[in-house]
Amino acid sequence: MRVELTEVLWLDQRDFSLADIAELSGLPAAELRALVECGALTPTDPDAAEWRFGAECLLAARAARRLREDFELDSQGLAVALTLTERIHDLERQLGELRARLPRRME
After folding, report:
1. Contacting residues for 75 by C-beta, under 8 A, at least 6 apart
2. Angle at which helices 29-38 and 55-71 pack, to 10 degrees?
3. Are 15 and 58 in contact (CB under 8 A)?
4. For residue 3, what pLDDT is reported?
5. What is residue 107's predicted lDDT score, i.e. its pLDDT?
6. Could you give the CA distance from residue 29 to residue 26 in angstroms, rounded to a whole number?
7. What is the H or E stretch that residue 17 is in?
8. Which of 6, 7, 57, 63 has the most CB atoms within 10 Å of its CB?
9. Which of 70, 14, 15, 61 is nearest to 41 (CA)?
């Protein structure tokens, strides 16, 4: 029997530097900066000397790396794909909330 140990991060309780996001996502810092410039990633304080990011940006950066590898997208393509993916998740959340408000049908 083989047991693997995995490092776990509680994402909702941390913020991350650009270097952290680069290391944890596998995207180079230059590409992450390009995604910030395109508006696909948003630092918690864009005017700060050193950008910090929430957990949602780490998840988006990981998705961006997978999209880049799977579809060979450049930074602009990644920005569009991330924006559309975020919009889909938002619409799915709204749909779930609306469904929760509907009365249960008797069958």
Report:
1. 31, 34, 35, 38
2. 100
3. no
4. 67
5. 54
6. 9
7. strand 16-17
8. 57
9. 61
Question: Whole-model pTM?
Answer: 0.75
If the chain, 107 residues long, is cut into consecutive pieces of 10 residues, what is the mean pLDDT of each piece? Answer: 64 82 95 93 91 93 94 91 93 95 74
Q: What is the 3-state secondary structure (H, E, C) of 50-92?
A: CCEECHHHHHHHHHHHHHHHHHCCCHHHHHHHHHHHHHHHHHH
Q: Could you count the other beta carbons within 10 Å of the beta carbon of residue 58? A: 20
What is residue 4's predicted lDDT score, i.e. its pLDDT? 72
Structure tokens at 15: 């913020």
> What's 16's DSSP letter?
E
pLDDT at residue number 11: 56
Give the pair of three-digit tokens for residue 94: 């709204």
